[in-house]
Every structure is written in structure tokens, then in C-alpha cells.
Amino acid sequence: MITLLAARIRMLIGWRDSENGQALIEYSLIMCLIVIVVLVTLIVLGNQVRNTYCNIQGAVVSA
pLDDT digit string (tens) for 17-45? Predict the structure, then answer.
């Protein structure tokens, strides 16, 4: 019981000193920024993208 408790305390202390959580949060924020940029781009260029896909679809169907 004491050994298990000591192991958990060491694990918690290791987490506090570790920078893995910070890196994970930084990568998550970068991914959120990328998603926001992609969404804004699709909203702004949505009709042009839709027309392009329709043209490709029409070309494939008629071939």
C-alpha cells in the first residue's frame, strides 16, 4: 500500500515537472489556428470551390 502511494506521488511530481503537457497545449492551439484558417478560407471561397467541384464532377460524368 505504501509502495503504491509512493509510486503515485512520484508520478504526480514527475507530471508537474514535465513539459509534455505544455507542448501538447501548444500543438493543440496551433491545430485550432489551422482549423480556423481553413474554415474562414472555405467560407470566403466557398462558391468558387463548389463550382470547381461541380465542373470536375461534370467532366467525370460526361467522360
Answer: 556 677 888 899 999 999 999 999 989 98
Number of domains in the chain: 1
pLDDT confidence of residue 6 = 76
Q: Which amino acid is at 52?
A: T
> Rounded distance, CA 55 to CA 63, Å?
12
How far is Cα of residue 33 from the mean position of the Cα atoms in its chain?
9
Q: What is the 3-class SS of 2-61, one letter each residue? A: HHHHHHHHHHHHHHHHCCHHHHHHHHHHHHHHHHHHHHHHHHHCHHHHHHHHHHHHHHHH
Domain that holds residue 49: 2-62
